[in-house]
Amino acid sequence: MTERDYLGEFEHMIVLALLRLEDHAYGVTVRQEIEFRTGREVSIGAVYATLARLESKGYVRSRNGDPTPERGGRSKRFFRVTAKGLNAVNRTQRALQSMIQGLDLAGSYS
User: Fold this and answer.
1) Which long-range contacts (CB under 8 A, 24 or more apart) does 80-87 make?
2) What number does CATH give the domain 9-94?
3) Does position 108 have pLDDT exceeding 70, yes or no?
4) Ramachandran assignment for 79, one of left (phi > 0), alpha (psi -120 to 50 degrees), beta (any other)
5) How far apart are CA 99 and CA 94, in angstroms?
6) pLDDT in the model for residue 1
7) Which of 7, 40, 51, 55 lies in disulfide reach of 12, CB 3.0 to 4.6 Å?
């Protein structure tokens, strides 16, 4: 990762949701967490596509849980943030804080 690699907005939300959910983070719970916290509707396809992209970048890793009868014997795929992913979220947070610093966001802009 270079100093110029940052997470995109949705990637950022996904990683933050994974951090909040800890051991309970899989596609559906990630989607629910983002929708609950942001009020933004999220497609499950967008969640899984982003998780796959984050995994290919090494920011998250996945593992399969045990199969469950409720899922017809299929297992859930759980996700966790890696050290590289935590560095990316921290770098992105610092960049956003730097951009916000000194702005009067309560002011009116035209």
Assistant:
1) 80/18, 80/23, 80/25, 81/15, 81/18, 81/19, 82/58, 84/1, 84/57, 84/58, 84/59, 85/15, 85/54, 85/58, 85/59, 85/60, 86/19, 87/1
2) 1.10.10.10
3) no
4) beta
5) 9
6) 45
7) 7
Q: In this structure, are residues 26 and 18 in contact, taking their beta carbons and an 8 Å threshold?
A: no
Q: How many Å apart are CA 41 and CA 76, to the nearest integer?
A: 22
Place of tokens 């947070």: 93
Give the CA distances from residue 78 to residues 13, 19, 49, in Å, rounded to whole numbers and listed in that order: 17, 12, 14
**Among 60, 56, 58, 57, CA closest to 14:** 60
Per residue in 68-104, pLDDT (tens digit) is: 777 666 788 999 999 999 999 999 999 999 999 988 8
Q: How many Cβ atoms from other residues are within 10 Å of residue 102's Cβ? A: 6
